[in-house]
TrEMBL record:
It comes from the Bacteria. The keyword Transmembrane helix applies. Keywords: Membrane, Transmembrane, Transmembrane helix. The chain crosses the membrane at residues 20-42. This is YqzM family protein. Pfam families: YqzM (PF14141). InterPro entries: YqzM. It comes from Lederbergia graminis.
Length: 44
């Protein structure tokens, strides 16, 4: 084992962090899409 495997900073599951990152980015892009759609509909 190398030094970094013995002294880890976070023991949390990487899948949980990946899922949170995916959800946050998905919500962000969905909000951008909704805002753009609302502006487009108001402009007609």
């Amino acid at each position: 084992m190398n030094e970094f495997e013995q002294n880890v900073q976070s023991k949390r599951n990487d899948a949980i962090d990946s899922g949170i990152g995916f959800v946050v980015s998905f919500v962000f892009f969905s909000a951008i899409f909704v805002i753009g759609t609302v502006i487009q509909l108001l402009g007609k």
